[in-house]
Amino acid sequence: MGLDIAALLQRSQGQARDLHREHVNPKWMDALGLIGFDREYVRASGCTLWDGEGNRFLDMIGGYATCNVGRNHPVVCKAISDFASSQAASMVCFDAPLLAGILARQLKGRIGRDLDRVFFTNSGTEGIEAAIKFARCATGRPTILHETGSFHGLSTGALAINGCPSFREGFEPLCAHSRAFPRGDLSALEAHLAGRDVAALVLEPIQGKGVWTHPRGMMAEASRLCARFGTLLVVDEVQTGLGRTGSFLAIDQEGDVAPHMVILSKGLSGGQVPVGAVLCRTDVWERVFSRLDRAIVHSSTFHMNGLAMAVGLATLSVIEEERLCERAVLAGSRLRAGLDAIADHSPFISAVRQRGLMVGIEFAAPESPRLRLAWNLTKAIDPNLFVQAVTIPLMQRDRILTQVAGHAIPVLKLTPPLVISEPEIDLFTAAFARAVRDLETPGGPAWTALSAIAVNAVGAKWRSLRSRWSGDPSATGAHKDG
Ligand SMILES: Cc1ncc(COP(=O)(O)O)c(C=O)c1O
Q1: What are the pLDDT digits (tens) for 217-274?
Q2: Fold that domain 23-54+324-464 belongs to in CATH
Q3: Where do you find CATH 3.90.1150.10 in the chain?
Q4: Is the pTM value of this prediction over 0.85?
Q5: Left (φ > 0), alpha (ψ -120 to 50) or beta: where does 271 sit?
């Protein structure tokens, strides 16, 4: 009796596409279909996914960098089932949950830096929202400063400090008190801070959209400038934290950086249960939670829920016991060596950026006029198109998941689980080498895949324009075969 999830999954297998098209987000299904990513996976372990026919896929995306410990890690799965069968008193809300206290102590133990208070969240975005509020409250200043190209989430506060215009379109006006400065430009940063109206500078140590690293010493100098002008430094480690770049935090490799807040999420979840944390200096915290009647002036219902706390603790234990920071360094070096060798011989690859297992491979117009023509053509059709000439064959031919690093950014991004093995890295490198070599043959498989989606993309744009002109919404139904 009751719901049998395993049986439900079994008898519903193969229906995901149609269910999503009908009930969830048809446009997402169109986008996935266009690039051949509309698959239904039935099982996962480590870096591997399986579909219903038993095909194996190598996951080089890692759930947008959430699956640092690998998918379905037995320690994380055990924590989930132990917690569920423990009859724990979770979600009392008017209490002080024990596991939240233990997780807070453990996070502080790993991070130090005088970040003595921990606020738990359900996501990275919520961490950013909390940091914006805490910074305004603690400084009495209005402005939040961010870099061009930044990504900190998509709720309205986080979107106001999102440096990717494509995400903002249609949602303006956002907060008038957010400002951007050019990525990595310390003079521009100083000019903004000198006005002394900036509550917080929010920085990703490595920008996820495009995988842009900062020049050496930039983060430390930004930290010094913040201290000089009374601005709080908020470091967004949502993507870079929990071992991703080869150290527990990415700023551990950036010299003398003194954040007032550090935001964590993704990798803390074990790839399973939403969780996040804001680590905050006591002086900032005390200005926010300043009186008894403000004891929960910032909060949310689920933020210390027991399951999330248990999974956070299990994830930390795996990162430590399996030495995942060191593994990210070793695996990252092996991957980097393979990619550098490929880049040396490819007319299309202009740069490889890598720290641990956060990798961006940048493509640029080649010198040969024949190849340049093909490059320019795809760019003219759609600025997002070119990198798909690599992601599509990797998926279709080699069953490897990779992603484009952002809207109109010609960068392929890799954030595999940190448990990736040497054979898996070599498998990826060999497949990538072939995909990149194919780019040199206009009319070959890469370009065939591209022209197919170009035709679909043009078709979709045409249908969308037609619907706008005719007012007929049915005309927008873009489909991969359309
Ligand atoms: C650097 C960074 N900050 C914040 C976020 C938002 O996190 P979430 O999607 O968990 O809300 C993301 C998500 O990709 C991110 O990469």
Answers
A1: 999 999 999 999 999 999 999 999 999 999 999 999 999 999 999 999 999 999 999 9
A2: Aspartate Aminotransferase, domain 1 (3.90.1150)
A3: 23-54+324-464
A4: yes
A5: left
